[in-house]
């Protein structure tokens, strides 16, 4: 193809006879595609084109032409035709009804709804270049703002409606809690007591508690949850504790049985892998009230799990469970139509801006100090080229009576590939450390196998535990004082901090070696430097937000917190303060706009909010 500026070659992989006839020499065309440099110079692979009529000047379109993501069976031209048809319909019908009042649009400098849709699909030719990007297009920003606003309004509505539901007033338990605290080999921290008092004030009220409990790794969140559970049990109601993994749920079960069974409290266990006969017995005991505290995994969300009188739900590691799963537990009170109280714990701190949006329905409590006697973990960054020195360090630590972790990370999501990588690493380390007992744990093992390995490691029979990130949450072995994390550059700061929290739980000085692979990107280097220089989970959470963006810190894929159509919490986090102000303004001055907004964006999910 030739024009006044030069020559460009068009490459077609499937060139039909019709195309050959249409593109005969001398024909004028208008052509679009991605330009690359090839063997013949500049080339466009499989361009879009339109043959222009001879002897007739065709005006250039007044707007840019959109390029849409397509899929098999839906070509670009067809997609564009359907959207253009919808845009024409908008013009014919006078546009969409704007749910946002004019005052809000003016105050936050937003475009109108119909205008925003046109700016996304057909921006004018004089539009600034940054409008061509979905991240900076003002039309897309307007839609994202409205969606975030609808989400916040729906969460706040849920909170308001919950305040009108009845919950059991859990007023007993002071004497039982006192006796329980006397059995502990340590004193509660001032921060633990302060947070316990906040939770107690919620539990004695007859409206459902909705509280988020944050604290750094090892700050004693589980103990605070145990005190809340005792208050509920002493008041004659049952407690459910839900954890995201079997390892963590089993560990909670072991801890709570050791704490509670001396007081005659019956603790039950339920997971997806519980045998049928055992499961049947647990469900019967739950309905009769014999089982007072039930601990398990997501199996506790199932419809057939019913309680005689559920008073408190404790959810550990909230970001693994979606808000909708939490809501599914609201009707499991089982007694006088009472709704249970909910206490949600996060394993690592969540930056304030994200908590404001993702947990808009929850009050927040923070345990701000670690128990005394905890020594911060020393962190070293070591290149994989010095791997031999690291294995020598493990040998020294284990020979001196300590234990160690070796954590394998893999980019692939496949559990099978992760397991294979861990198996290969364990085999290699067994060859190099023949005097040590090397254990292996990964996600594809049976629950009983994992349990056996963890018991062996906890009892000291296993010196070195090779693991995938399955040990990320909650595993507690005080004698383990050394951790090696392979390829730490593949993980986010929150996950690295959580992994590192598996050591430093005893009185011995603990160390974490981050065995990185050169070359490191600038961003990876910054992340690992943060890990080396800080052990403060709240500081690390804020830095993670800066370096990776909220979309990855709270990525909806792994968190299940929320899914958006247009908005992206990562990309649009700068809007969150304005969204909060707008929601307050709408609720106060334009309550008639709230329902249409929620209905437009939440749609079928509205019933999950209107509980």
Brief summary of the model shown:
The chain has 611 residues and is of the alpha/beta class. It is built from 23 helices and 20 strands.
Describe this protein's structure.
The radius of gyration is 29 Å and the shape is globular. Strands 10-11-9-12-13-8-14 form a seven-stranded parallel β-sheet, sandwiched between helices. The protein has a six-stranded parallel β-sheet with strand order 15-20-19-16-18-17, sandwiched between helices. The longest helix has 26 residues, at 138-163. It is an alpha/beta fold and 611 residues long. It has 23 helices and 20 strands. Helices cover 41% and strands 15% of the residues. Helix 4 crosses helix 5 (138-163) and helix 5 (138-163) packs across helix 21. Among the domains are: 2-58, no CATH class; 163-367, P-loop containing nucleotide triphosphate hydrolases (Rossmann fold, 3-Layer(aba) Sandwich), CATH 3.40.50.300; 378-534, Rossmann fold, CATH 3.40.50. The N and C termini lie far apart (63 Å). Helix 10 links the parallel strand 10 (267-270) and strand 11 (293-296). Mean pLDDT is 86; it is low at 554-561 and 606-611.
